[in-house]
Structures are given as C-alpha cells and as structure tokens.
Amino acid sequence: MFFRVRIRAILTGKLSLGDNLKPLFSQKPLVSALAAVFVVFSASVWAEGTVRLPEKTNTDDAVCQASAASPLPNISGSGEAALPTDAVRVVADKVEGQSQVRVRAEGDVIVERNTQILNADWIDYDQITQDVRAGDAFVLNDGRSTVAGETLNYNLDTEHGRAEKARFESQTAQRRLQGEGGVVLMAGKQRYRLEDVKFNTCQAGDNSWYIAAKSMDADYEQNIGVARDARFVFGGVPLLYTPWIDFPLNGERKSGLLTPTVKIGSDGFELTAPYYLNLAPNYDATIRPHYISRRGLQLGGEVRYLEPAFQGEVQGAWLPDDRKSRYNNRYEIDWVHSHQIGGDGKVGIDFHQVSDDDYDRDFWGGIGSNDVNLNRQIWLNQETNAWGGRLSNYFTFQKYQTLASESGYKNAPYALMPRLSSNWNRYLGNNYNINVFAQATRFTHDSKQEGSRAVLYPSVAADYHNSWGFIRPKVGVHVTHYDLDTFKQEKQRSLNRVLPIVSVDSGVVFERPWQIRGHGFTQTLEPRLFYTYIPGREQNDLPLFDASENSWSYEQLFRENRYSGQDRINAANSLTTALQTRVYDDKNGAERFSAGIGQKWYFNKDSVLLDGSLQKNERDRSDILMFARANLNNQIFLETHWHYNENLNKTDRADLGVRYQPEIGKTISVRYRYGRYEELYDAHYGKTQQIDAALQWPIKNRYSVVARYNYDFSHSKALNQLLGLEYQSPCRCWSVSVVGQRYVNEVNHSKNAVFIQLQLRDLTSVGNNPFTQLRTAIPGYSNIYNMR
User: Kind and range of the H or E element at 43?
Assistant: First the structure.
C-alpha cells in the first residue's frame, strides 16, 4: 500500500468535481414539423439491433462546442512509476488512518490499482476488504469505461460497486456510448447495470437524441447491451416505445432486428423489416419481409459465408401474388461464389435468375431501354509459370437470361458451352516479348446457327524506349478455325481464316518549362505514329458469335482491330497520326491539362464491315477525333470529346462537361452530349441531344440541397429529375435526407420514388437510403453523414 500527502503552496480546499456533473440529458422541444416527419417513420427507428442516437437541434457549431461543459470531468493519475500487480496507491491533500487497516483521504484524491483510477473529493478505504467509499463527487475509470457521480461504494478487488446519480461513458474502436442513470451498478470486470438511464452514442455533451430506459445491462466481455422499458427520444419528443431491445456494445454484428426501410413511390407505400442472424463469425443470414402496398408481400433474404478457401453470397426474393402485374410467383435468385484451388487456381459461380421480363423494370428501377442480360456462369481461373514464362488459363460455361424490353424486343447473346482460353507470355531480356493466345469455344443459341471456334494468335513484340521516346514493333498471325452445325438450309461445314497482323507504335516526348503568374509548370508535346497492316479478306461466310464494333474514340486510333471478339478482323494498311500535349504542376507533379487530336490515314482503302463484306473506303483518311481534360486548382474540372465525320462534314458525337467542386460537399456539374446516330431503344437509331445538370450545395445552417435534371432535347422529355434536401446536425450526431426522384424506366413510362432517411451516429439509419441514387446522379457527391 502506498500513501502520499500532496504538498501545496496554497491550500484551496476541496476540488469541486461536482461543478462538472450537470445533467447530460434534458428535454428540449424540436421544431414541430421536423418531429412530425420522424413520427411518421418512428417504427423504423427502433427496429435495429444496434442502437444509435441523434444530435442537438441547434444550428450553430458554437452551441455544440459550448455544450461541451457537460461532458464527464477529466480523470488524472498520479504520474508516478507503475505499481506492482494489485498494489494500491493513494495520493491526496490529506491522508490519515491506520496502515494496512483503514485510510481516509481528503482533497483532490487519486487512487490507482492496476488499470483502475479513482478521483474524488474524499474517500474511506478499507485495506482489508478493498472496499472504497467516495464523495462528494467522484470519477472512476476501469480501463474501458468511465463513471462519474456524487457517491460511490466500490470494491477494488472484485470491481463490484454502486454509484448514485451517476453518468458514464465508454469508448471502443467502433462506438462511443454515454449516458446517465439514477443508479449505476458495477457487477465485475466490464459489466454494468444502470437504472433509470438515458444514453446515446453522440459526442460528449450532445443530447439531441437518446434512449430512456428503466434499466440497461452492459456486458463488454459478451459485447451485449440490453435495455428494458425503453423510449426513443428525438429532440425532446418521445417517438416510440419498446419493452425490450438488445444491441452490440462495440458496433460489431449481432443477431436481431435491423432498421426497417420505408419508401413511397409508384408502387405506393413500401416497408422492409429485416432480421439479422449472426450465425457464426464467418457466416450470417438476413431475412427481409417486404410489404408493397400496391403489389403485396414479398419475402426475401440472403446468406453470406467466408472460409479460408472459399466465400460467397446467396440472396433471393419471392412475391407469390403481385396485384399490379400480369405475372404471379415472381422471384429472383442470385448466387456468387469463389473457391481457391491450390495456390494459383480459383473456381467460381455467378448465377442470376428472375421469374419474368418485367422484373427489372418493376423492382430494380433500371432504365430498361436495352436488353438486360443476367449472367449464369461457372468459371475456373488458373495461373502458373511454364516454359520460362507465365501461363494463365480460363475455363467457363456461360449462358445468359435475356430480359425483353417492354415492346418484347430482345437479342440474346450466344452461350459459351464451354470456352477455354489460354495466354502464355515470356519476356526475353529487356526489349522482347513473346505472347501466344489460344481459345476454343462451343457456341449455342436457341434461334441462331451454332458451332465451334478455335483461335490461335502468336505474336512477337519489341520495346525500344528511353526518356524521350519509344518505338514498339509487333508481328503476329491470327489463325481461326470454325466447325459450323447445320442450320436451316445451310449444311454443316468447316472454315478457316489466317491473317498476319503487323503494327508499329512510336512516339516522341518534348518538354518545356512554362510560367503562369510566377507558378511553374512543365508542358509536353507528344507526337505519335501508329502503323497497322492487316490484309483485307472477305469474312461474310463466317458467323457473328461474339463480334461487335467498338465505339470510335481517341483510344481506338491505337488499336489493331476496331472489332471486339474474334469473328471479325478489319483490313488495315493505315497510319495513325496524333498529337497530344500535357501540362504538369511543378509543385506536386499533378496533371493539370491534357489534350489530343488524331486521325488515321489509309494507304489501302479496303475495309471489312461487321457483316463480313469487303468494301472500299470512300476517302483516304478517317474521321477526326479530339479530347481535352483540365483540372484547375483541384476545383474546376473540364472534359470534352469530339468526333468529326469528314465524309459528311458533320459532327458524329460530342460531349462537354464542367464540374466545380471547391470543397467536399460542394459540387456543381453540367454536361452536354450530342450523338448524330445512336441507338435510342430496341435497335431503333436516331439523333440524341441531352443536357445533364447536377449539384450538391450547402445553403444555410447545415442544410444542403441536392438536385439533378437530365433532359433529352431530341424527344422533348426529361429522363431523370431529382430534388432533395439534406441536413447535418451541429455536433454531427445525426443527419437527415429527403429526396424525390422521377425517372424514365421504359420508352413511354416513368417511375417515381421518395427517399427519407435519418442517420444516427454510430448506431443505425432509418428510412430508405438515397446514397446510391445520389452518388450516380451527382458527380462528386459526398455523403454528409461521413463529413465529420
């Protein structure tokens, strides 16, 4: 036992810890309109197994800072050397008593034992039983939690005790918990019981929301908190009641009700009340009953699993009787699984299935103007070292469920039953590379010609480069063999195609210093030449299993083949000439500006169309392609692309976008897009002109407005309209978002949705989360809940 009397130059009397023990929670009325909104959704607030609470309703940060007068008093140790295990040190202004029997200490008392620290105005300490009585005010910390109050009876050995009119707080990596109780009972190491308690997960001094309960048990070893006879109070307004609720104390997973979500839109009122099952540390499940007022009751859920060798997720939903649809027994099934095989192999399953063609339009909210292809696939991927190089193999069975558009149009892709792809790559020294690509595929289809295809494409490339330029020649031979089945009047047959492919990519980089108002930059000038030779061969006797024409872009100027897949290889005897410039900031190396312009020049006018026919180009050069990007002071971002058709002397495609983002949570963007001839819907083509404007901007007192307007001038139709208001509380303990959206989900149909969400700090969210819609609709959008 260690005692020390603190010597003071001037004795000032007792330390008034009690001055800092003002009530943490008090009733404060909330603006009635805001309270009414949350009353509507109050059933959602209480249903999460993890508890979290909101903040003060004040709109000034200074008010939040001023409220910090009510947090628990700071606790202080003696600052002396560490004690032996179970030894006790008492430091005070005055210490008296009988050694090894009983001690009374007064005036700024500090008691230390293991991880426990007790500060008090005075203590009576029984050294034999290890019982301590403390008053008139005390603060006790056991290494995880802090309790402060007026009187304390506590045993330093068993860590059992009782405090009157006490306040508490605890902090884990995931969650902070604070509150006050008429009685706080300490029931052993990291176990507490609080009676007549009010608690929340806000910052110190923030009582904008809380849970008031007759009792709460907190067991940090078991990570379980249980509140009984509890009310949720927001802004001083009681919103809901429950006789019992349990929750994880450290924010980790725990079985129980999750927060229900509420949505109002084209399908009426929707309520989802999920129940979470924490089955084991490495797998769990969620059950999701989903009530849709205009359709019926949908049952859904998911199972997730994670093992050292495999992981995956299975989820599904079933609506037996849809009152709004011509279909019944509507369902979806999704299964994603991957399994490690050895050290360099992996096998997986990606399976998605729905009951009918309308499912994505009715439940996913997709645009739906083009086909929706749901992947159903088994795959095997393996990589290994072989023959001095790296060999990668990919084997798959793949088939799609293609959902038709509203008009019934669909164009299902071929199924791969199966496909084996291999790629071997070996570097010879620093300059040479050998690559061999091989692929064998069996293509099947319900209404098109079926067959098999084998591809072999060996190539040799060199890379000569230094700090100011490069030249990269490449030579390869593309060999393709087809075995086609009988189809209608066509008999079974075999076909071959052999095409040499030669390319040379080269470029030079010039640099110069550049000063703008005393700021240093480096500007480059990068001319580039890309030559390609592929002889022209008619390919109209070959099928179209997986070929499509790539979009004509600046990057496409430097590719050998303008077609994707292996069924079509364009003819080429052309030279791409391009010029690009970049501007770098000398201070940090950031690219502030880049722009490029390029065009192909044809030495031979042979051209292979997508249907395989061979025709002559009408001119000796391609369309002109240009792009530009700018990042000005990390606040203003500009980007534009331009595709000019020299044959028609018209612009084929152009877009221009600008975004202003001076800081997180402030963004304004506008993008204009023009297409002379593009697919509008169901293989129908025409001109499109669209403008897309979006913003997220704070307006006043932590309110922010979010909006998007996407309008199609060609059809005089608004494609997507969104408007909402977000609010972040001063102490950042809660936020609320109210967002309305109207969007086109088919050629002649639109859907509406209203999202209302209340987020309680480190506890839960209430309502329907609009974050996904806002993130995709507003470039640079920031979730206000994370802006701390």
Answer: helix 42-45
Average pLDDT, the chain: 85
Question: H or E segment at 265?
Answer: strand 261-265
CA–CA dist 224, 294 (Å, integer): 39
Q: Looking at the domain 2-251, which fold is it?
A: lipopolysaccharide transport protein A fold (2.60.450)
Residue 746 vs residue 153, higher pLDDT: 153
- CB distance 279 to 287 below 8 Å: no
Among the listed residues 758, 721, 725, the one whose alpha carbon sits nearest the alpha carbon of residue 739: 725
Q: Which tokens hold the place of 692? A: 């897309």
DSSP 3-state assignment of 36? helix
Q: Kindly provide the residue ranges of all beta strands, DSSP E only, lying in 387-491, ordered along the sequence.
A: 389-403, 415-428, 432-444, 451-462, 464-466, 469-484
C-alpha angle with apex 85: 79 to 86, nearest 5 degrees?
95
Residue 634: its pLDDT value, please? 87
Please write the tens of the pLDDT for every residue from 59-118: 444 445 434 435 677 787 888 888 898 898 999 999 888 877 898 999 999 999 988 999
What DSSP string describes 120-187? EEEEEEETTTTEEEEEEEEEEE-SSEEEEESEEEEETTT-EEEEEEEEEEEE-SS-EEEEEEEEEEEE
Structure tokens at 315: 């989820």
Say if residue 558 is exposed, middle or buried (CB neighbours under 10 Å; 0-12, 13-18, 19+): middle
Neighbours of 446 (CB within 10 A): 7
Q: Are 736 and 726 in contact (CB under 8 A)?
A: yes
- Whether 245 shows a pLDDT value over 60: the answer reads yes
pLDDT beyond 50 at 319: yes
Kindly state the tokens that stand for 480. Answer: 């393709």
List b or e across 645-684, with b for residues whose CB sees 16 or more CB atoms inside 10 angstroms: beeeeeebbbbebebbbeeebbbbbbbbbbbbeeebbbee
pLDDT of residue 490: 87
pLDDT band at 528 (very low <50, low <70, confident <90, very high): very high
Domain extent listing, the chain: 2-251, 255-364, 655-788
Among candidates 139, 184, 155, which has minimal Cα distance to 15?
A: 139
Question: Looking at 701-748, which runs of residues are DSSP E strands?
Answer: 703-712, 717-728, 734-746
378: which residues sit within 8 A by CB, 6+ positions away? 347, 348, 349, 396, 397, 398
Per-residue pLDDT, 201: 84
766 in helix, strand or coil?
strand
Which are the contacts of 394, defined by CB distance < 8 A and separation ≥ 6? 379, 380, 381, 382, 419, 420, 421, 422
What lies within 8 Å, CB to CB, of 119 at 6+ separation is 15, 17, 73, 75, 76, 108, 109, 110, 111, 138, 139, 140
